[in-house]
Structure formats: C-alpha cells, structure tokens
Queue: 2 jobs
Job 1
Amino acid sequence: MIRNPFTFLAALFVLLSCSEPVRESAPPASNQSPSLERAIEVVQKESGVYLYRYAETIEPIDPRKDYTEKYRIFRQSTIEDLRNLVASNREYEPEFKARCLPVWDAGLEFRDEGQSVMFLFSFRCNTIRYVEGNLFKDFTPQRTAFYKIFQYEINDESAVLIEKR
C-alpha cells in the first residue's frame, strides 16, 4: 500500500545521490522538502551503513530495537551494490500485487549522528518498506540479489558484527 509514491521515489533518490562526493552545504532548493534534504545529507556523509536481522514474527517490530543481529557494513563495493539495488527498484510496478502480511527478514539503515534512512525487507512477500515514510513496495526483480548479499556477502570480510541477541 503506497500512500505517496513520490516520497518513496525521494528516498530512492537519496540512495542514488550517495555515490557522489560530499559537497559543501548549499541552501535547500525551494522544491525539496526539509526531510528530503536531511536524508540526502545523512546518506552523503556515509558514516554508517547497517544491516539488521530479525526473528520470525508477524507482530509489529521496532526495526532499530527488535533485531537479533546488527552489522556495520564497511566494504564499499557491498554498500554501492545495495544502494544500486534499492535505486533500481524505483520504477518497478508489478501488474499483480500479492496480498501478504510481511515478516521482516532484514533491515538496511544509512545513518549519521542520530539521523537515518531505513528500509525493511520481507523475502516471503517480496516487499520492501521505507520506514520513515511508512511506504511499501514490491522488489521481485531485486529479490535474489538482495538475498545473496544479505545471506552470503555480509561476513567478516565486509562487515563487523556489532551485537547478537
């Protein structure tokens, strides 16, 4: 259920702009919302990219507190792959939308000094959720690539395990 597709697209724009170098702060353009400007600043600083894993539950979760494992990703190529996958999903609109209650498997957060942009992933329902905008979207074309990265590429060579519960 996408309430405002432009908000989701704005979040994806944030991820696309991450690969650009950090620039001096300019006054916000009149057509950008303050929250979009804040999100762009958070991702451009690149001071933290985190992967969360969750226990299997259909109950609502707090994605920043109810995790079983939390990793800080440091391999730049993995971070770029994740950004590109999220960005490539922006144009995808399936002809058939399955009705499914998402069980969140993983979360991906771009964070700096208390500000963050976060996405949740349900592989059972092929659903990605932009947390701050409470927007849901299908990610079928990118599902296998996300799964491969989350399950097989996040390891001691690409990330640091911060906490395991």
Job 2
Amino acid sequence: MILVFPKFHPQIFFGGLPDSMGNLVSLKSLGNLLQLNHLDLSWNQLSGQIPRSLGNLLQLTHLVLWQNQLSGKIPISLGNLLQLTHLSLSGNQLSRQIPLSILNLTQLEYLRIGENSLQGSIPDEVIAFPNLISLSLTGNLLNGTLPSWLYTAPSLKVMELSQNQFSGHIKEFQSKSLELIRLNNNKLQGPLPSSIFQILHLTELDLPSNNLSGVIELSMFSNLPNLVYLDLSYNNLSLTSNTTSTWMQEVGNDSLLYLNVSHNFLTEVEQFPWKNIAVLDLSSNLIRGNLSIPASRIKVSSLICNVTFLQILDLSHNNLSGTILQCFGNLSDSLGFLNLKKNKFYGTIPLTFAKGCQLSNFNLNGNLLEGPLTPSIFNYKGLEVLDLGNNKINDTFPHWLGSLPQLQVLVLKSNHMHGSLCVNSSKSSPFFSKIQIFDLSSNYFSGPLPVRYINSFKAIINLEKIGSTVSYMGENDHGGRGFYTYSIGIAMKGQDVELVKIFNMWMIIDLSNNQFEGEIPKVIGKLNLLKGLNLSHNNLNGGIPTSTGNLTSLEWLDLSSNRLSGTIPYRLTDLPFLSSLNVSENQLHGQIPQGKQFNTFGNDSYEGNKFSKGCSINETPPPNMLEKDGSKANIAFGWKVLLIGYGCGVVFGMAMGCAVFQTGKAKRFVNLVEDQHEKRRRRKPK
C-alpha cells in the first residue's frame, strides 16, 4: 500500500507529524495498513520531530520526508524498518548524530539525508549497506574520517559527501561500480589514491576545496573513458614534467565537458585533445610561457583553438605572455566567457573577435595591452561585462560602448586614457542604459563630469528593471551543473577588493584619480540606487549639491582631494546606509553635520578643510576606523574578512554576520577577497 501526499500546493500541510502516525493500522478507511510500504510527505511545511512510532511500520520500503522543516534527531526506531530501500530526509533541519541503528537497514538502496545540520561521524562497520546505490550526506556538519564501508560497498554508484568537515586521507577504493564522487568542500588531505583512476564507469569526479596534495600521475586518467566532469580546483596538487606532455591526450578525449584544475600548481599545458569540452578553467596556477606558434617553450598550446564547443575559458592569474591568439576569435560562435586577467599579454586585442562574437564576459584586466580601442572589436550585442582595467591602453573614451544594449559592467581603470567624456552626438537614444558598475578611475580624463551619461544610467536611476531577487551575474555552466560567476576588482570604502561574485544590484561609479573639472552636477541625485560614488582626486569645484541627499542607497561617498567649497549638506545625515564618508583635502567650511552615522566618522574624513572650530569632532576616531599607510580614505571597518553574499537588509559594511553560502557549484566563488597590495594613488596636477 502506498500513502503519498504530493506537493500540489506549497502550503498543503503545516505543523508536526502526529505520533499516532505509527498506529495507522487503526484507521479502517485506509484498509490493512499492515501492508503500507510507501510513505511520501515531501515538499510540505511539516515541522517538529520525526515521531518514533514510524518505526512500527515494519513493511515500509519507502520513507520520503525531504524538503520540510522537521527538526531534532533521527529516531533510533527507524532502524526497525528492515524492509526499507529508500530513506530520504534531505532538506530539513535535523541535527545531532546519525544513529548507529541505521546500519541495520541492510536493504537500503537510496540514503539521502543531506542539507541538514547533522553532526559527528558517519557510523562505521566493515560491512554495511551491501545494496546501497546512492548516498547523499551533502551540506551537513559531519566530521571524522570517511567510513571504511564506503570503499567496499559493492553496488554504490553515487557518493555525495560534499560541504561537510570530513578529514583524513582518501583510501583506496575496492568498489568499481562508482559513477559519481563528490567530496568537495571538506578538509580531506594527502594524495589521491591510485585506485580512483581505475573506476571505469566514473563520469564525475568532484574534489575541489580540500587540502589534497602531492604529485598526480595524470596519465592514469586514461582508464576513465566516460569521464564528463573533473574538478580538482582549490587544492595543493602538482604535476611532474614527464607526465604533462601526455596526460591531456588521454583524459576523456570525447567525453570530457568540464575541467577545472584552478588554484593548484599546474605549470604546463601542452595538449588540448578534448573536442567537446565546454568549460575549461586553468586559472590561478603557475602556467608560464606564451601562446603563440611557433615558440620554443609553448606552455599552453594553440591547439585549444581546435575546440568547437568551448563556452567558458579561464586562464587568469597565471604567467602567460605574448600576444593574444588570433584564433580565440574563431571561438566566437560558442565562447561566452573569456578571462585572461592577471597575465602578461601585450600588443593589441585581435580584430578576429569582431566576427559573430557571442561573448557576454570579456576580462583582460591586469595585462600589458595597448590601444587603441575600435568599435569593430567590441561590437558584441550580448556583452554584459567588459574589464580592460590595469593595462596600457592609450585612447580617448570609447563612447560607442554606450550603445551596447546589455552592458552592465565597464571597467577601464588604470590605463592611459584621456580626453573628455562629453557626448557630441545629437541622438536621443540612451547611453549605458543598463550600466551598474562604471569605473574609469586612474586615467587622464578631463573636462566636466558626463551629465549625458548620468542621465542615461537608467538601471541606477531605477528606470530599468533589474529584478528584486538576490542573484548574481554569470554564465550558465553548461559543462557541469552550476553557475560560473563574473568577478571584478573595485575600490570600496577606500579599500581595493575583488568582487569574486557580482550581486545583480551592485551600483557603483568610480571616476577618481582623473582631471575632471567643474561642478558636481545636480543630476547626480537622480541615481537613487547608487551604493558607491568616488570622485576623489580630481579638479572639481563648487559646492556639494544638496541633491546628494536623495541617494538613499548610498553606502560610501568619497569626494576627497578636489577644490570643493561651501558646506556639507545637512541632508547627508538622512542617508540611512552611509557608512563611509571622505571629504578631506578640499576648501569646505562651516559646521560639520552631527547626529546619526556622522557621529561615527573620524577626523580623517574632514581634515584639510576650513571647518569652524568647536564642531565637536572626536579627537580620535572610533576603534573600528582604520587608516591605511597614510591614505586619506575613511574605512568604516577593517575588511580583513571574507564577505559573502549581499542583501541582508543592513549596511553592507556591517553585513558580515549575514554571510551565507549558496548551494551548488558556484558556492566557492561567493567571496569578497581583499587585495593586500597598497592602493596606488596617482596624483594629478591641479
């Protein structure tokens, strides 16, 4: 007999499971429930503890309670259900240890108790679960070493133990039936066992974010003809030189779709035999040399250009040099994400990118590239993120970028760009209507601030619908099962940080360290979703417009090192999220507004002005104020932390306690990483 209460509506059942559920034999309307073998109450809102009396339903083969709000411990009495083949308790709030009685369930084929708060170690026995096919314990607080029966379970195909706290070494596997192994985000250490490369049916091997080390003989992957997904990222693995020349020819030539070995010690990549690969991430390794052919020391072969379906390519944070391969442009029909950040590429951007390109993210930040920039190179209608910062591009501002309909992030900072941002076109069509991050800092731009652009920033003015849910910019990870995120480096509250995940509601304008002149336009007050505004180190004069009091989402404002005069508008005290203010080194005078968040700003926010005496400025800044090696930037907190996510409803600078992880592949990318190098400040002649 089967008793199923499916999820027709998300609120079909509330409250706890009654203890009388175990006495269902007394309910005549349900017939002879001694034969009940299938109970499914998944996807409801049931709360409370799992009743012990469920252990009385001795004929149960399926107990499915996943995606509810059940709490407490797993009852020991469930060990009485000796006929049980399916036990699914995932997606609840269960805690404490997994009971030893669960080892009695020798008929179990599917055990799924992930996404809870279970603690302690997994019960161990030399022989356990001889019929187990699928095991999912992901997303708990389990610790200790992996139990011995995991290595010998004869029927086990799916092993999901990710996002726990398991430690110790991975031992040799005796079972050859495994098809999927997910052990990511644990504390496992030591070398990979050689037996893992002899599991012929393995399609997915997912081991990132551990402490695995040692030298991998990658040629052993040749025994895995069905491998589709391989992720060894964020470990301490290295390769020997006598294997790197052949291993890539032997790893899933036809089957492999996803390969991520980033954040290891890979030094050379000479072969790209994967004809069908969609995602390739070799970032943050020690790959060196150039990409051009011919070359005597090729370390990343141009054979990559023979790949037909490549969608995501990340070679960032290596030591690659030379010019960018012309053939990258030939990948334009499929390539959506290209990240060559933090290498040593020089020369110009190949014109081949102009033909039929589908790029949505193009990141060349931190190289030695020169200009000029031409419209034909970046005429990508789907481009969302363009980061050319920290290069040697010498050109005027590329106004034609404003016509790209999907562009949300533009970073041109720290180049040799010059000239005015004034728009001579008489066209009424908007420029940069979807822009959310606009960073032109540390260049040589001059003239007035770009009023035409400010009026066209519809996404920041809140005229362009962005979406109300918490989401991130990124590419669908077609080669795997997750989401590949965009990342950029920005100056936030006087600190250089890298947004390794860009929240879709980030709104930032940084025009600092240029030669802009004239007054701050009143239209700046229209940008009511703006979170960060940096106009420091320019030649701006006039007063601080009172319209800045309309920027109700603003969290940091830096107007330092200009020639601003007048007083600080009192309306700034009404900005509820403002946690960092710097107006130092100007010609401001009068009284400093008091009250609310202004009581937390220290002297370094105001020094170098002509404010009246007796303004009640604190003699010393509060303990949570930092000054970085003489920098004038006011930092409301020491950002010696990893900031994860956004949208907790409080000031971003105080949102550290709201840090939460998303589940899935993208989780490990959800960090804000503080750059440790000194922020470069380029003084411009006034």
